[in-house]
Design brief:
Helices cover about 55% and strands about 10% of the residues. By secondary structure, it is mostly helical. The protein folds into two domains: about 5-140, Ribonuclease III domain (Ribonuclease iii, N-terminal Endonuclease Domain, Chain A), CATH 1.10.1520.10; about 150-215, Double Stranded RNA Binding Domain (2-Layer Sandwich). Strands 1-2-3 form a three-stranded antiparallel beta sheet, covered by helices on one side. The longest helix is centred in the N-terminal third of the chain and has 22 residues, at about 35-60. The N and C termini lie far apart (about 50 Å). The relative contact order is 0.13.
């Protein structure tokens, strides 16, 4: 029964199959009409527009240069995966093996798929309102525009007299729909640090975060 989940979401589906599909991982079925991959594709775009609109209206005096990093933070894998757990989606996911249940990439995808399912079951405005409702508290967690890890690393490296960090791809694995990139960041002759992510940008951010920790502790 998915009614308890619908109560948490604050939205009750007319077509329950859409919610079921949004919760179904490709390890259960590879049929594109039965797993969440297409809905995730749609939901990802809706999430991006909804968060952009929320930021635009919430911070009317901020320039694009401040809104952009806020947006990146609010739609990144880590934030969306955290939202998936907050909504209890991890408990309702249909997966072949339990080790998938805590995978950040999967949690992020399922959350976006649910947004896409709401879009299809109702309309664009309902999906936008859903994101607005659940992401609104996150907008005010830190009123200072966050700096991404790559920017912070560059500032720290320059302050310590190092050259500009250099990034390179180490590997790419996973399926076409769920790729995992591993990127390395090098700062002069220091030990390189690596990070992984759903795309190159996220992997670079993860690597930069590790390098920041390394520099601060060395």
């Amino acid at each position: 029964m998915l009614e308890p989940l619908e109560n948490i979401l604050g939205y009750h589906f007319k077509n329950k199959q859409l919610l079921q599909q949004a919760l179904t991982h490709s390890s259960v079925t590879s049929h594109i009409g039965s797993n969440y991959e297409r809905l995730e594709f749609l939901g990802d775009r809706v999430l991006g527009v909804a968060v952009a609109n929320a930021l635009y209206t919430t911070f009317p005096n901020e320039p694009e240069g401040s809104l952009s990093p806020r947006h990146t933070h609010l739609v990144c894998k880590e934030t969306v995966a955290q939202m998936a757990k907050q909504l209890g989606l991890d408990k309702y996911m249909r997966i072949a093996t339990e080790d998938i249940r805590d995978n950040e990439n999967v949690l992020c995808d399922v959350c976006e798929a649910v947004i896409g399912a709401i879009f299809m079951d109702a309309d664009c405005q309902t999906a936008l309102d859903f994101v607005q409702k659940h992401w609104q508290p996150l907008l005010h967690k830190d009123m200072t525009p966050p700096k991404d890890f790559k920017t912070r690393l560059q500032e720290i490296a320059h302050a310590k007299g190092f050259s500009t960090p250099v990034y390179e791809q180490i590997s790419r694995s996973g399926s076409e729909h769920e790729p995992v990139f591993v990127m390395a960041v090098r700062v002069d002759n220091l030990a390189p640090q690596t990070g992984s992510g759903h795309n190159k940008k996220l992997a670079e951010q993860a690597a930069a975060a590790k390098m920041i920790t390394f520099l601060e502790n060395s």
